[in-house]
Description:
Layout: H1 2-18, H2 20-24, H3 32-47, E1 52-53, H4 55-59, E2 70-72, E3 76-79, H5 84-92, H6 103-122, H7 125-136, H8 139-144, H9 151-170, H10 175-191, H11 195-209, H12 214-243, H13 255-262, H14 270-284, H15 286-289, H16 293-305, H17 314-324, H18 326-348, H19 368-384, H20 389-407, H21 414-433, E4 439-443, E5 454-457, H22 465-478, E6 482-486, H23 498-501, E7 508-511, E8 518-522
Parallel strand pairs: 4-5, 4-6
Antiparallel strand pairs: 1-3, 2-3, 6-8, 7-8
Amino acid sequence: MKNKIILIAILLISFFLCNYINIFGTNWFKHPDETGYYVLAKELYVNHRLFIEIPLNTSLQTNSFTPAGLFYNGKFAVPSMAYGMYFFTALGFWLGNNGPFFIPPIFALISIVATYLIVNKLFDKNTAILSASLWGLSAPLIYWSNSIFGNIAGLSFYLLGVYFLIKIIDDLKIKSNYLYSGIFLALSIFTRYEYLFFVFCILLAFIHLTKNNFPKLLTNFVLIILPIIISCLFVLKLNSIYFGSPLSFSYTAPTSEVSNNVTSNSPVGLNKYFVSVKRIYDRFFTQDLNPNITRLNNNFSRYVANIFFLSVLSIVGLVSVIFKGGKTRVFFIGILVPTLLWTYDTLGGYHWGEDFSSISGVYVRYFPITYLLLIILFSLFIFKSHLNRFLKILLIIMVVSQNFLLLFNKIDGLNVLLTEKKSYYEVNKYIENNSNKKTIVVSNLYNKYIISRTVLNYSLINENKSEVILSITEDLLRDNYRILLAEDITHKATYINFKEMLPTSNIKIIENKKYPDIYELIR
Length: 523
């Protein structure tokens, strides 16, 4: 009963913090992926389709009017991320326009409960309640559950799938456990593609544990595999529809080539599969075989050690798992191996690698399973070590304190995020209230915040950026569109200095007193 009370209390506190911005402010987008999830999910909710028609892209032969976080395939704006989270975000619109922001916190709660259930099955109630508590109060879980992403959702489904696999080992005859496991593992893949590798590894662990009975379990095992196969086939089918090849998706499909495939009824040749595989390899795996040790070390320090600085103590917990043996060791290795490889790949390579170690760093949202494993192993250390009670309590307090310092620091904590999101929302609302539907916003920095009007996102123009934007702007003005320019001089990475360009044309600028970054362009 005591553990249940603690778990309920942690769930309430965590849910409150995961909804911090929903409760105290106006939630909006900070990252383009959030914008894409929201915009396309609303299209799915309202018009029951997973693509958006963009007439201006077609008429002006460009992709620059594609909403932030989506991919233009030559015909439509389509998902740029794994498909599942678009469907789950769409469900949030039942609660109104702010409803999608409550979906990630729900998955956060599921991950906390699933953590408790798994650790309780593999170890004991005390380790389970400490693991669930530290995870529920962890800065990565809380910070990134205030935004619309699929990382926590994918983890939650995966953990539930693993839990039912563990239950199968306890009783091989209950068929419902096989089906539940298969459904949740399939949903994890549908929500985050990397979980295909995680699922493969955990199923190998399951097969190893049941090898003596596996021939007899084959019929039941189909109940696990079938949902996974259906999920993968659904993804491949959608890829074929939107990207011209089952193995292509937004990160590996050039717009021009996708356009040719999507608009053509001709079959995709075998060579297309090899090309798709090559692009996937180039995009995701080349850095793994050519590791940059300095980058690996720097990113590990920033995004693992600095966020969970007592992670070194988790080694003791890992040793205790290895010596424990049985299903505990097998299942844990089945989770640990893909986690280590995923962490290595993400820290080492292609991504962005911002030069700071804050909780808002983009890498942080890629590592929920990494942080969770560290927390479970740390919890094992607490109960397996021979430290006195006072030191153990002190270490727990240190971990919780660090997380709350990260969450409420004055540089990028929750209050800062709340202020930022409120300002982004107000920019969108201002443009909506002070323009008509035939208004185009030319922007890059603000494109991920504005959904009330069509945005010409000049980050999508690769060559001759200034000339192309100027040409498109003049065409739009001739067609009687109202043009607003949203450009921030302090954001050097996206600033193109329209003022310097415009003297060469007939376009003039009208400045805005309320929002200095927003101008109107007229002829």
